[in-house]
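Annex B, item 7. Sequence and structure tokens for protein A, then protein B.
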Amino acid sequence: MLSDAELGTIEFVRNERSKHIRVRILSSGLKVTLPPQATHDDALKFINSIRAKLIQKQQKLEKGLEKRNIIIDENSRLQTLTFVVEAKPVARKNIYFSLKSSALTIEFPLGTNCNDSQTQQYFWNGISHFLRKEAKRLLPDRTKQLAQKFGFTFSTVKIQSSKSRWGSCSQSQSINLSLYLMLLPVHLVDYVILHELCHTKEMNHGHNFWRWMDRVTDGKSKEMQKELKNYHMPQ
């Protein structure tokens, strides 16, 4: 791992099955996969040969993340599946969270800069704590209900903190759901759960998979897939 003044942190990972040097662009740097015969110097030569393009794509990624960010401040009102999040400045010395009557109240000291990244991270750490509790309370039971309704079987349901995907299904039919599903409207929560349940029948996204999806969504799978793209996880 090394630090680059323009590109950020560059992490090197070796993969015995890779045939070419592959570069994954992150907002904080690069993740470079090396085939067995490649050296770090080979990778750096390749990076330098496309440096301008990498910087351009990294800047585009950062702008996209900024646009997707959900900022919590006194003017925001975030609605989750089971509670609304409201933040307000008060005369206190620390940040305080309280979930009562379907409202999560965040009290923060007067004069706090809510645009500060550390403050936002603290807010979201607290929100995520309550999202996880609610997700564990509701999502496994909802998965069981939908599985019974449509005749699916699965092994387990796990709640994870993934920010890259809403859900996944393993070969052992274990379903993983992101706690950030709680930021979606209920019909899209069901859509994601059904998507993973359909993977217990078809592990790919081929024609048969989408036949299953249309069967359990009254033919609205593509429409709901498109709607889901309008929602983003906090970055």
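Protein B:
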Amino acid sequence: MKVKTILVSQPAPKAKQSPYFDLMDKQKVKIDFRSFIHVEGLSARDVRNQKIDFLSFTAVIFTSRNAVDNYFRLAEEMRIAIPDSMKYFCLSEAVAFYLQKYVVYRKRKIYVGTRTFDDILPLIKKHKSETYLLPCSDKVKPSMLSKLNELDLNWEKATLFKTVISDLSDLEDVFYDVLVFFSPSGIKSLFENFPSFKQNDTRIAVFGNSTVKAAEEAGLKIDIAAPSKETPSMTMALEKYIKKANK
């Protein structure tokens, strides 16, 4: 069956030059974007209940923009002045660049990984004497926590925001040829919004092993999976499938 319409369960790209827009132009398909989940920040009271004192740490590990936003939002709400001596360990250049929204680069000690959590671990290991805070969501990966434990660090996690299922009731009578998912939470959102969802001829695209597992456990048939050596990105995986399906 041909592919004409795709729904990506994420917000629309802000950059004008997105591979999704290129895919639309090249393959003549319609791609819509809709967040199946969204993030809500916790309150200062929630953080205090975790017995977390931002000033008792000398370094912060940032794995996402949400972590950056909520760390500094809560610091402001709790009237905490983050000292200039604080060290920041960022998962990627994108996260480090986003940090500039809150701190002046030249006045801070910032350490940057290349892409994955494993990439930043050697940098953290070099500074084992620091006391680390990991701002995270309620859906933090257990593997991330175990890897920090393996380094024998003085560290704590602080749940500063949570992942919430979005209301998708307006999509009840809208059908797409392909649904694209990037997290188990997205799969969960699909079935919480539409408990009687039947896949029928809808193709399912998933990114990452945890999403594959969640889709399979939900009884979905996976038609498109990324990343792989041949298709490291979701847009590449979609394009490969569309070229074959739309011959």
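Comment on protein B: The chain has two domains: 5-36+169-245, 40-163.
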